[in-house]
């Protein structure tokens, strides 16, 4: 996908902004928690280093006194591996041990790593990816529903114009009355149409609209009894017709919602996963750089 394609898509921007804000907040919270852990690790390792330095100093002093005393024990009696071991080697070994004891992960190419931070980061990534995919699916479904509702409202308006032969009602145009929130409200739409029927005097045989107005004629013809003695009211006919219109529009809305969800969800998943990977790589680089 091309990011520029969605530069003017406010819904997509909102979804990505929400995901970025949540991710940044979680990393901020994680960093705050890690400060205490890092300090504990540093304090413990500093104490170990002080012990090593002190022990090395004592060893040197004893060695010097040993030479001065000129005892029968010779310097070469001390194992070579001990004599050649430097203070730096001792510090590195114990510092690594300290980090490991605190639950860290030590890389073979480095003396000391921010193991705890890296371990937590590895544990975070799968959960972040799972959350990213879930958020993409949720957003995709929301975008699908929005598109479906818009298509449904458009279909209701089209069918009412086609069936009832009207462009507007006394309370306003069909476009202003029927929208994504009202297009499934059979009762509201039926009452609005019946109000127009009454306003025009469609039920009055003496009215000029009775036989001349296409809207009046459609409703009045629909009220004609199919059997002798079986008549219907204008309100009943209008409501029955509106139910059919809304039912057809619901089918259009569901189809559009399914199509839009299937189209948008993979795009959102790809962007969310890319955001997680980018964030992960950035923090991983920061951890490595701090070693």
From TrEMBL:
Protein name: RIFIN
One Pfam family from the record: RIFIN
Highest rank taxon of the organism: Eukaryota
Top-level taxonomy: Eukaryota, Sar, Alveolata, Apicomplexa, Aconoidasida
SUPFAM superfamilies xref list: EF-hand
Gene for this chain: rif
């Amino acid at each position: 996908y091309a990011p520029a394609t969605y530069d003017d898509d406010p819904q997509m921007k909102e979804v990505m902004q929400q995901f970025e804000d949540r991710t940044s907040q979680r990393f901020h919270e994680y960093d705050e928690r890690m400060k205490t852990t890092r300090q504990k690790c540093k304090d413990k390792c500093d104490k170990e280093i002080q012990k090593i330095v002190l022990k090395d100093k004592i060893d040197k002093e004893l060695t010097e006194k040993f030479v001065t005393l000129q005892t029968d024990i010779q310097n070469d009696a001390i194992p070579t591996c001990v004599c050649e071991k430097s203070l730096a080697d001792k510090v590195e070994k114990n510092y690594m041990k300290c980090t490991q004891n605190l639950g860290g992960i030590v890389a073979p190419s480095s003396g000391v790593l921010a193991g705890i931070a890296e371990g937590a980061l590895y544990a975070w990534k799968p959960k972040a990816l799972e959350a990213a995919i879930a958020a993409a699916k949720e957003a995709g479904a929301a975008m699908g529903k929005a598109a479906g509702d818009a298509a449904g409202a458009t279909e209701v308006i089209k069918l009412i114009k086609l069936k009832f032969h009207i462009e507007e009602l006394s309370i306003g145009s069909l476009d202003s009355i029927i929208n994504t929130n009202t297009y499934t409200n059979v009762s509201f739409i039926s009452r609005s149409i019946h109000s127009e029927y009454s306003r025009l005097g469609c039920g009055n045989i003496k009215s000029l609209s009775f036989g001349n107005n296409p809207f009046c004629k459609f409703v009045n013809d629909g009220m004609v009894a199919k059997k002798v003695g079986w008549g219907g009211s204008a309100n009943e006919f209008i409501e029955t017709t509106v139910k059919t219109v809304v039912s057809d529009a619901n089918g259009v809305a569901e189809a559009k919602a399914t199509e839009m969800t299937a189209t948008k969800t993979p795009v959102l998943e790809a962007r969310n996963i890319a955001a997680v990977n980018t964030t992960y790589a950035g923090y991983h680089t920061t951890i490595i750089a701090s070693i």
